[in-house]
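dude i think i finally got it to work??
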Amino acid sequence: MLSFLYPPVCPLCQKEILEKGQNLCKKCREKDIFLHEPLCFCCGKPLDHKEEEYCQDCRKHPKKFIRNIGLCVYEEPVKSSLSAVKYKNKREYAGFYIEEMKRRRGRQLKSIYPDIIVPVPMHARKRRKRGFNQAEIFAAGIAEITGCPMEPRLVKRVHDTKPQKNLNPEQRKKNLSHAFQGEKEIYHRLGRPGRILIVDDIYTTGATMQGVAQALLRMGAKEIYACCIAVGRGFS
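look at this
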């Protein structure tokens, strides 16, 4: 009865799933939304040629993290789906991405052996308004996959920056250059973790990930890895 009143909804097209036991509707199951090799060894963006190891952006602008592990290409229908999680409180959609991350990237994530998992933080004012941080939802799923603890308080967002989607690549870097600050007291209480995995929902220019990684490195972290649900094409 409840399934009739509240039918399961496809997390991609956000329409009813007609087949019992499926997590996507038939039309969306036919779409290839996932990242495939060749991918940049650092940021995880798609490459044009399999002979390449690093994209032009990572060669030109070395990153503070060692590697970013992504799941999907940041294009439709993933864009609208993740936007619904963030802005329309469709947190139930996150389960689909976490399950796919476990199935497709679980072994790779476990091989990192992170000491701690850190979600990209949201400014306190924005969190109060939205009521949750979507990066924490995904980070909790990654923590379950890897069996590693998550600490959402290790890095805080000290500046309520402008929305990244409205800025060009250079503006994004400037916008986030001093937006994050590590919590040294918590870092020491955790035993000064050396290998840290940062989790976010979307990776485009990498400015957000760079900002969080810098804050962790300033506290004493040695190796930073990243994980994102969706990775955009193109470079900064």
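Strands lie at 67-73, 116-119, 155-157, 180-182, 195-203, 223-231.
im so relieved honestly
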